[in-house]
Design a protein that fits this description.
Elements: E1 8-16, E2 24-32, H1 55-64
Antiparallel strand pairs: 1-2
């Protein structure tokens, strides 16, 4: 199912905060290709991992074309 690879891009980063022990929270955002900052807003869907999950799950699913 690698078709998504041509229509989506993955953006990764981290937000610094004193509210968590590590001092930062990693994030990953999947954005449609061609959508740039300043473009029309997109709907927001949050995927909150739990039970020992991490950002790597979303990255792995993106890389697998899921």
């Amino acid at each position: 199912m690698k078709d998504n690879q041509s229509t989506l891009r993955l953006v990764q980063g981290a937000l610094t905060t004193a509210l968590v022990p590590d001092g930062k929270v990693d994030y990953a955002v999947i954005v449609p290709v061609g959508h740039d900052a300043g473009s029309d807003p997109l709907p927001l869907l949050l995927q909150l991992h739990g039970a020992g999950g991490s950002i790597q799950q979303l990255i792995g699913e993106h890389d697998a074309g899921i």
